[in-house]
Write a structure and sequence with these properties.
The complex is a heterodimer of chains A (418) and B (293).
Chain A (H helix, E strand, L loop, with lengths): L4 H15 L11 E7 L8 H14 L4 E7 L3 H13 L7 E4 L23 H5 L3 H6 L9 E7 L2 E4 H6 L9 H13 L3 E3 L9 H15 L11 H16 L10 H9 L3 E5 L8 H4 L7 E4 L10 E12 L5 H14 L2 H11 L2 E2 L10 H11 L3 E3 L2 H21 L5 H10 L4
Helix pairs in contact in A: 2-13, 8-9, 8-15, 9-16, 15-16
Chain B lengths: L1 H35 L2 E2 L7 E2 L3 H7 L2 H33 L5 H9 L6 H11 L6 H8 L14 H8 L4 H13 L3 H9 L4 H12 L1 H16 L3 H6 L11 H10 L3 H26 L4 H6 L1
Classes of the chains: A alpha/beta (418), B mainly alpha (293).
Chain lengths: 418, 293
């Protein structure tokens, strides 16, 4: 029994089909940089990123070409990055990650380029120094901060007015009074949630409370510290008295949905939420006021912020490729390009571009940052995925009265990897 | 003889793809999983030998024990509620009542709809403020509940949603019932057996093998359950709906690959135990196959 000519032809064709996609078609001498990118499709940064990459490719035609590999789903993107690193390959020549207590583990990998020697002089000075400092771990700078986020609370001014609240609360007592008035007017005071893996909007509230009780370095303390216990008590109060009936187990979509629908008056989220078309379409959009959570403890003038996106590069021994990556990153983070990105997306960037927003809501974020508050991380950024998950799960039990604030804190403490 | 040998080579050649695929996507990952379950490994760093620390950490974690309990509840509910319910519907449809073909399609339909879409519909139905279930409850004077937000109801609420997948096993059992020789029923009718007696004495014993297969499949699904719980509650509130699959995923999310591997091995072992147990208890005999011989 011999293989026919057709059979052999089929095998050759199959082999070619398998091999061809992996073959490079770069022009001779041109360095192609692959960028698995989340800022594509409907992402608010997509148009500016596409334009920046396009301009870079035109200016460096025949020498360097950046190719975006689009990824529309952030969770899938994160998994891709993790899986690639775990498998011992860099996810791309350029890629982004959220730098937090879990992902900082990647700094121990030799797959990531260390920018310490390249980031000097004017380029170094163009970065927000606080964000840059947060990105240095163990003396290594394996990611560059691109996007930062301040995480304030948002007030629906129309609903406050309707409830007879004439000014934004400045103290915690004023906040409770405002919430009582909202409740009396038949309005759910705040959007809370204990679902997803990070109880996002409620985690932001907790972070404000904890830092106001324990200061900006509160996350270094044991979670059984009084600062956390007191914060847990306030969270229980918010869940029991000042939120929607579906808050326990609710996802970020539900929490945000209540604010968007005008059912809740106070919400918490980052600046990217301001760019949502459905928010801009609401009648109350012009009345939105953003502000810090009034301090519940002795520490005032602290705002909660985080590194939202850092950019990383695959380590290479090829000097030409290394230089090409640095050339592109310098171009990407140039003042003009960062200003373009900030303007079109509404995001707050970690590069001092001199951009001054004109959009009133975006301006409120910039004004808040410009007030010179001391910054502190949120719980997730400070303590990582496992502690945040425990916080989320036990927040439901706390709100339902199944555990005490002390037990809540003790359970979270057990999951912190110190 | 030569031809016989040539055939053997071709048989071996035909087996190569499946052996390679099975080896690459099952055997290798399984052994790699066993290996990494004894390692301390955070993905990016070097693996270091960790003895049984990952396993001892898992078994000293109340949450993991709760996940095992939930998986067993899932397996039992799928095997002993879903399959008997499917059998009941199959027995009714096998009598070929008016419109039975349409009903057969309707029962099977949820199996071709995206799990995500169905989960989102259930989340809406269970919504404490605007959900249909609470609306019905209020209509009869009941108190609305946060079904998915209350640890005492969340697991049951999610398990209940799987009832709509009953059509999957119904189709399998229905096919087996339809294959039973009609002569057996005719003989029983001549002997004066009632419909119930016919079902109990002929149908159920004859489809026993199929039922055991369905129960095995259903319980295996229960042991590896992940999707709808992840979509509806993420394993919460307070871990009340968490499963070993969710724990494994979250361990990976927290870059604890050694612990995730250990959780995976526990899942495989427990799943195997459950399946072997059900086969032992229910038996492997298939009267239909025996009748055919």
């Amino acid at each position: 029994m011999r293989m026919t000519k057709i059979g052999r032809g089929f095998l050759v064709a199959a082999a070619l089909l398998f091999v061809l996609p992996f073959a490079g078609f770069a022009q001779s001498g041109e360095i192609v940089l692959k960028w698995p990118c989340i800022w594509v499709g409907k992402d608010s940064k997509a148009p500016a990123i596409a334009e920046i990459v396009d301009n870079f490719n035109k200016a460096n035609a025949g020498k360097i070409r950046v190719e975006i590999e689009p990824s529309n789903d952030y969770n899938a993107y994160e998994q891709k990055v993790r899986t690639a690193i775990m498998a011992g390959v860099a996810p791309g020549d350029i890629f982004t990650l959220k730098l937090n207590a879990s992902t900082k583990e990647f700094y121990s990998s030799n797959l990531l380029m260390d920018f310490s020697k390249d980031l000097t002089g004017e380029w170094k000075n163009s970065f927000d120094q606080g964000a840059l400092q947060q990105s240095i771990i163990g003396g290594k700078l394996k990611t560059l901060p691109i996007e930062t986020a301040v995480l304030p609370i948002w007030y629906n001014g129309d609903l406050l007015k309707k409830a007879g609240v004439s000014k934004i609360p400045q103290t915690i007592d004023e906040l409770w009074t405002a919430m009582d008035k909202l409740k009396a007017a038949g309005i759910y005071p705040s959007s809370q949630m204990s679902g997803d893996t990070n109880a996002w909007t409620s985690m932001i509230w907790f972070s404000w409370f904890a830092t106001s009780f324990g200061g900006p370095d509160v996350w270094d303390k044991p979670f059984t510290d009084k600062a956390f216990v007191e914060s847990a008590k306030l969270m229980k109060r918010l869940f029991n008295d000042y939120t929607t009936p579906d808050a326990i187990g609710a996802s970020a979509g539900v929490s945000g949905g209540h604010f968007l629908a005008g059912r809740t008056a106070i919400f918490s989220n980052g600046p990217w939420y301001a760019g949502r078309a459905d928010l801009r379409a609401t009648s109350f959009f012009p009345s939105i006021v953003i502000a810090p959570v009034p301090p519940a403890g002795p520490h005032k003038n602290i705002i909660i912020s985080r590194l939202q996106a850092n950019i990383a590069a695959g380590e290479t021994k090829d000097k030409a490729r290394h230089d090409a990556i640095i050339t592109f990153l310098k171009y990407l983070t140039s003042k003009n390009n960062m200003a373009k990105l900030a303007e079109s997306s509404g995001s707050m960037l970690a590069v001092n571009s001199g951009y001054v927003p004109t959009d009133p809501l975006q301006k409120q974020f910039y004004d808040l940052v410009g007030k010179g508050y001391q910054t502190a991380n949120d719980l997730e950024a400070a303590l990582g995925a496992e502690a945040t998950l425990e916080f989320t799960q036990q927040l439901s039990a706390l709100a339902l009265g199944k555990i005490t604030p002390e037990q809540f804190c003790s359970l979270v403490e057990k999951k912190i990897d110190r | 003889m030569k031809r016989h040998n040539a055939n053997r080579y071709w048989i071996a050649l035909y087996l190569v793809p499946i052996v390679v695929l099975f080896g690459a996507f099952f055997v290798y990952p399984l052994f790699f999983n066993i290996y990494t379950s004894f390692m301390k490994w955070k993905g990016s760093s070097e693996m270091t030998w960790n003895n049984f620390a990952n396993y001892s950490k898992l078994f000293s974690d109340d949450t993991f024990l709760l996940a095992i309990k939930n998986n067993v509840i899932w397996a039992l509910s799928q095997g002993f509620i879903q399959v008997p319910l499917a059998a009941l519907i199959a027995l009714m449809l096998a009598r070929e009542p008016k419109g039975w073909r349409v009903m057969r399609t309707v029962y099977f339909l949820p199996n071709v709809i995206s799990t995500v879409a169905i989960a989102m519909v259930w989340v809406a139905l269970y919504n404490p403020q605007y959900g249909f279930i609470n609306a019905i409850l209020k209509l009869f004077g009941g108190e609305p509940r946060n079904w998915l937000g209350d640890p005492s109801t969340a697991l049951a609420a999610i398990i209940l949603t799987t009832v709509i997948y009953v059509g999957y096993f119904m189709i399998i059992i229905l096919a087996a019932v339809m294959d039973i020789p009609k002569e057996l029923y005719e003989a029983a009718q001549i002997d004066g057996a009632s419909t119930l007696q016919q079902e109990l004495r002929i149908t159920l014993p004859m489809v026993r093998g199929t039922m055991v297969t369905c129960m095995t499949l259903a319980m295996a699904y229960g042991m590896r359950h992940f999707e709808s719980t992840w979509l509806m509650t993420g394993g919460g509130p307070a871990y009340s709906t968490t499963t070993m699959g969710i724990m494994l995923y979250l361990k990976m999310d927290a870059l604890r690959y050694g612990e995730a591997s250990a959780a995976g091995i526990v899942l495989i072992v427990l799943g195997s135990v459950v399946i072997v147990a059900i086969r032992k208890i229910m038996g492997n005999k298939d009267p239909m196959a025996e009748a055919a011989q």
